[in-house]
Amino acid sequence: MDFLGRIPIRRWIGLCALASLACAEPPPHLGIVEETAVEFGRVLIATENSAPDAAPESAWVAVSDSDLLAGLSPGQRVAYRLRKGTAKPEAESLSVLGWATEAEGWIDVPGHRRIRARRASDVRLKDQEGRPFELTDWRGGLVLLDFIYTRCPGPCPAQTHDLVSVQRGLSALARSRTRFASVTLEPEVDDGPALRAYAEAHGVDLSGWSFLTGEPQHALAVARDWGIGSSAEPDGSIGHTLHSFLIDDRGYVVARYSSRDRDPDTIRADIERFAHAAEGRLPSGVQASPQ
Known about the structure:
Mean pLDDT is 86; it is low at 283-291. The protein is an alpha+beta fold. The termini are far apart. The longest helix has 16 residues, at 264-279. The chain folds into two domains: 29-100, CATH 2.40.50; 118-277, Glutaredoxin (3-Layer(aba) Sandwich). The chain contains eight helices and 16 strands. The strands form five sheets. It has a five-stranded antiparallel β-sheet. Helix content is 28%, strand content 30%.
C-alpha cells in the first residue's frame, strides 16, 4: 500500500486505464450472412475487413444454437464473437443486426429474402429487323435472356420451346412487363432473316421477343460477358452452355436457369413474382418498352 501511495495520482489514473483496456472485451466481428448449412451446424459469413477498401473475407463459422442457426438468412447483418481455443471458427455469441442494403451489394426479392446483387452486363446488338437493341433500354421491365443459334440440332430448339411455353402462360400484367431476348452464338450465319425464320418456326410471339445478332466480335463478346462458353464441334455444330437469365426491373440478375433446372412452370412463377414486385416500383400502366 505504501508503494501505491507513492504513485502520483495522474500515473495511477493512467495505470487504471491501461488495466481496464487490457481486460476490456474486443469489439465483435461484423459481417453479412451469405449462406447457411443447418445440417452441418454452420453459417458462411462475409466479415468486414479492417483494411481500407479491402473486400470482405468469407469464412464458415460453426453455430451450436440450432434454433438461432435455423433463423439466419442470407443478407442479414450480424455481430459475432469467436470462441477462443478452437481449431475452426466457432461462434461464442451471434446476434442479428438487420438486413444488408443495396449499397452493400444485397437486394430484396419476392418472398422476403435477399440475394447478392449482380448488375446485368449490357447487351448492345441488333434485332431480327435490324433495329438497335440495348438491354439498359428495357430498365423498368423484366428481361429473360438466353443464347441460341439457328442451326442448333436440338438443345436450342428445346430451350426456345420451353420459353415459348413460359411466354404464352404469363398473365397480362407479367407479359406487359417482360421482354424475351435471344442472342445468337453464330452471328456470321444468323442474320435478321435467319433469326426471324427460326422464331416463326418455333411459334415465337415477336411482339415481346427480340432475336439478336451483330458483328461477330460484338455478339460473341456478349456471350463471354454472360459466362456462356462455346466451342466448335467436329460435326460443325457449336457446343455451348445452356443458361438463361432473368433480369429484374432494376437491372439485376435475379435468377439463372440451366438445362437441368429449366422448368417452365418455375420460370413462369418467378416472372410473375418479379413482375408484381416491379409493379410497386413503376407508375401504373408503364410497360416493358424502351425508354
